[in-house]
Amino acid sequence: MDDDGSKNLDKNEFFKALTDYKLGFSKAECTSIFDYFDVDSSGSITYDEFIRAIRGPMNMARKKMVAQAYKKLDKDGNGWIDINDVRGVYKANKHPDVLSGKKTEDQILQEFLETFETAHAMRGNDAPNYVVTKEEFDEYYNMISCSIDDDLYFMTMIQNAWKLTEESRQGEGTKGWGADNTAQPRAKRDNNIFNRPDPTAKKAAEPGLAANANEAKLMEHIRAKIAARGARGISGIGKKFKIADDNNSKSLDVGEFKKAMHDFRIGLNDQ
Q1: Which CATH number describes the domain made up of 8-55?
Q2: Which of 103, 137, 185, 218 is the most exposed, having the fewest neighbouring CB atoms within 10 Å of its CB?
C-alpha cells in the first residue's frame, strides 16, 4: 500500500488500496475509515496506527489482565498511578545512573512514568505530568498487544512484569533495566528538569529551568522532552511535527508551535 516508501499512508494511497482490494466503499466511507485509522489527525497513517486499527482492541481476557496490573499499581485507588504508587513496586536504587550519581531514584521513576504518557496528546488527556491514567496504561498495552498473537504469551508477560501471581519479597520490586544492569541510551538531560516532587502542581516553567535560560539550554530541554515522549528516530520526530501542523501547511506558525509545546508537555512559559 505504501507506494512511495514513506512509511506512512496518505489519503491517495489508502483510497487506492481500498479500491484495489475491492472493498466496495463509497468515497465518504473511505474518508470516514481514513479518519478512524489516523488517530493523531496528522493527515497520514503510520504503521503503528495501521496495525492498531486492523488488530482492534485487546480481547476481554487481556483487558482483565491489564486491569489487574493497573489496580495493583494504583495502590491508593485515586484513579491514576503516580510516583508514590510505583516507588514500592519499581525499584531504582541500583540503576546505573543512580549509582553513578547522575540521577536520583525519583528521576528514574519519573522517566518510567513518562513511558506511558505518549498517548495523551492525541487522546485529549489533560492529566498532569508524571502520572499514568487508566486510559494511558490501556493504550500502552493495546499497542503491545497488537504485535502478540498468543494470548498465553501476552498474559504471562503481564504476570511476570507486575508479579501478579506471586507476592513480591519484602522490599524487592521490579527493576527498570536489563538484568545486566545496563540502561538503554537516552538523550542527555539536565537533572533538575525532572525534579518534580508534586506532579499535580501547575508551574509556568519546569523546575530547574531558569527564566533566563539561553537558547542552547532551552533546546537541550526540548530535545530531552521530545525523546521522553517516544520520538527518537526521524520517523517518530516527523510524526510529532505532523501532529503539531494543524492546518497541514508543512510549516508551524507561532500559534501551532506554542500549542505543540503545551500538548507535548514541554513545560515552557510564553517567553
Answers
A1: 1.10.238.10
A2: 185
